[in-house]
Amino acid sequence: MNQPIRPSRSLIRCTGRAIGDFRMIREGDRLLLGLSGGKDSLTLLHLLLYFQARAPVRFELGAVTIDPQTGLTDKRALIPYLDHLKVPYHYVSEPILERAEKHLDNHSYCAFCSRMRRGLIYRTAREQGYTTIALGQHLDDLAESFLMSAFNGGRLKTMKAHYRVEAGDLRVIRPLVYARERQIQDFARAAALPIQEENCPTHYGTPTQRPRMKALLAEEEADNPHLFKSLVRTLMPLMSAGLEDIPREDEADASPALTGTTETLMSWKP
After folding, report:
1. Quick check: 206 pLDDT over 60?
2. Interhelix angle for 209-223 vs 139-148, to 10°?
3. Among 8, 88, 20, 21, which Cα is nearest to 50's?
4. 32 near 125, Cβ under 8 Å?
5. Whole-angstrom distance, CA of residue 123 vs CA of residue 142
6. pLDDT tens-digit series, residues 41-89
7. Which of 126, 137, 191 minimizes the C-alpha distance to 162?
8. What is the mean pLDDT of the chain?
9. Helices then strands (H, E): number in the chain?
């Protein structure tokens, strides 16, 4: 397979809307996609390739995979796939699991691994001259994070759609924040994407909080089919946190742009 796969109409619409609503992509941006090899990041890869070919602005796209050296999967299988798609690819292998085992107890793996992966993605972006990091979390992820934060941390918080990192030199975007996990699953299955199995050791142990939140949301949605439409409205202020730190003058430099132009995005025919 050496050609990008056309995503579904529903995924194109909701991703285009998110890019417009949260002013995610501008003329001349260099996007670095965090590619785990899971269904979410692989689906986002093909969506970004679709928009790159049709967008009213020009942007570059590369990808990075962080291999934590768990020995459970071989992420190098993605190298020929990205090569066929002609996407610049950065493969970073670091002994994250080994470091965690030396310094942390089992319950700290997720937080430690997340921090390490994020730091390595930032480092790769800076070394390679990327301006923006694209991540594949979707609406179900945001809803689960919201419940976990409310139930366990006593805070109203979820993942942000678009923000600057603390150092101020990189932006992070999540173009799938309006997409449902089932939409992504359907596309990944139909497109026969080369999904890599989860390589986190905790995946094979005791279920974590997130699966419990996922089950709770599924049970509620069975009784209320409009649950996630309501959740989008609830989460919007939390998703938008950090957007105020993206200077408006950045938008003025883009002509034409994807900034704040949901109508323009929606006019692209899927």
Report:
1. no
2. 110
3. 8
4. yes
5. 25
6. 999 999 999 999 999 899 999 999 998 877 667 778 899 999 999 999 9
7. 137
8. 86
9. 11, 6
Question: Which residue type is seen at 31?
Answer: L
Tokens at residue 15, please? Answer: 């991703």
Mean pLDDT score, 131-159: 95
DSSP of 47-113: HHHHHHHH-SS--EEEEEEEE---SS--GGGHHHHHHHTT--EEEEE--HHHHHHHH--GGGHHHHH
Query: Which residue type, as a one-letter code, is found at position 179?
Result: A
* Structure-block tokens of residue 258: 């994807």
* Calculated CA dihedral for residues 132, 172, 135, 87, nearest 10 degrees: 0
Residue whose structure tokens are 């050609």: 3
3-state class of 168 per DSSP?
Answer: coil
Tokens read off for 35: 């590619």
Instruction: Name the pTM for this structure.
Output: 0.88
For residues 136 and 188, what is the distance between their CA atoms, to the nearest angstrom?
Answer: 13
Encoding tokens for residue 151?
């139930």
Report in angstroms the alpha-carbon separations of 107 from 100, 202, 206. Answer: 10, 9, 10
Q: Which tokens in the block code for residue 85? A: 């798609």
Range list of β-strands (E), the chain: 30-34, 60-67, 89-93, 132-134, 162-164, 171-173
- Secondary structure of residue 206 in the 3-state scheme: coil
- Other CB atoms within 10 A of residue 139 CB: 23
Identify the three-state secondary structure at position 173.
strand
Average confidence (pLDDT) over 164-190: 97
Which pLDDT score is estimated for 107?
56
